[in-house]
Amino acid sequence: MERIELGEVQAKFAELLWQNVPIASGALVKICEKELGWKKPTTYTVLRKLCEKGLFENVGGVVSAKLSREEYCLKKSEELVEDSYSGSLPAFLAAFLSRKKLSRKEAEEIEAMIGAYQKEVR
What we know:
The structure is a single chain. The chain is mainly α. The protein folds into two domains: 8-69, Arc Repressor Mutant, subunit A (Orthogonal Bundle), CATH 1.10.10.10; 88-122. It is 69% helix and 8% strand. It is built from six helices and three strands, in the order H-E-H-H-E-E-H-H-H. Strands 1-3-2 form a three-stranded antiparallel β-sheet. The protein is elongated and about 50 Å long.
């Protein structure tokens, strides 16, 4: 899948969509008018751009997500690790942990995830 780059306005609109999908496009126009102060043409223009990027689709006047918020965030996280740390998760974690200290609970959760993964690959 191609990279999906969102500007600030598109990201805000995408968040609003993820909170409300599936939604009739007419209802979406009303929400955008109330929440964002947008007119109908603005809503449809930004929606069309997000549909072209593969995040959402508008079929029969109903807008739905082609990519969930979680899937989008996972994709962006993978891109960050790839671009900034040459795909090295340990390098990313080392950089992250140099600035943020984990709580005991967070460390235990990470250890449990690693343990579960190690069991899967054996």
